[in-house]
Amino acid sequence: MRLLPVTSWDDWAALATIASLVIALLAALIAWRQIKHQLVEGRRQSAFNAFLHFSERFLEFMELRSELKDRFERKDKDLKLREIKFFYQKYWNIQINEWEMFRAGLLPVDVYSGWLCYVHDNIVGDFRMGYFNADGQPGHMTARQAFETIALGQLMRSQPECRDFFKRLAERKHDWTPTHRPENDERLSARVKDMRDFLTEMRREYQIAAAWRLT
């Protein structure tokens, strides 16, 4: 390769400028790779933190559920409807927060799909919580009633995207509710796959696919 002759300080300046641009471009490329790596690690850490956070909140919720059911079985007449409503408000606040993390691209589909199976059970299945009326007679609030009145009717009123998400979840086919969750049960595997397909569809609709490639 034949190099052009350098005959003046202007030529030297031009070469120095080109060299500086090449170095700057290389530095920018290296910086971008570092930033992208930090974004990847940051998203992974955020997803892991979200998993721990929601797992802890769900355990607290399950402890409350067990306590309320025990009080009803012991015929604790101080157990009133307001406590059952508070229980369902706590549950649906968790679900809304999980959806918000998914909407932000910080909750992996593989994790959320398993959690949504339980949510789907609670929307469609025959679950109920007991309490005692003012006259001491037992009453019940079903999970479906709580979904329609507390979740859709109250907590999600100012979040139309969230309302739409859970209404569409409620419309999906539900023909089997496990009494336990054996990992090798084909019916459970099929339900998890259906939830994964649903989330993949919503992810495309929310246009958050690019963010997910960083996780």
Question: Overview of this structure, please?
Answer:
- This protein is mostly helical and 215 residues long.
- It has 7 helices and 2 strands, in the order H-H-H-E-E-H-H-H-H.
- The protein has a two-stranded antiparallel ribbon.
- Helix 1 (9-73) packs antiparallel against helix 2, helix 2 packs across helix 4 (143-155) and helix 3 crosses helix 6 (186-206).
- Mean pLDDT is 78; it is low at 9-29, 34-40 and 210-215.
Gist of the model:
This protein is mainly alpha-helical and 215 residues long. It has helices at residues 9-73, 81-103, 109-124, 143-155, 160-170, 186-206, 209-212, and strands spanning 128-132, 138-142.
How are the SSEs ordered, and which strands pair?
Layout: H1 9-73, H2 81-103, H3 109-124, E1 128-132, E2 138-142, H4 143-155, H5 160-170, H6 186-206, H7 209-212
Antiparallel strand pairs: 1-2
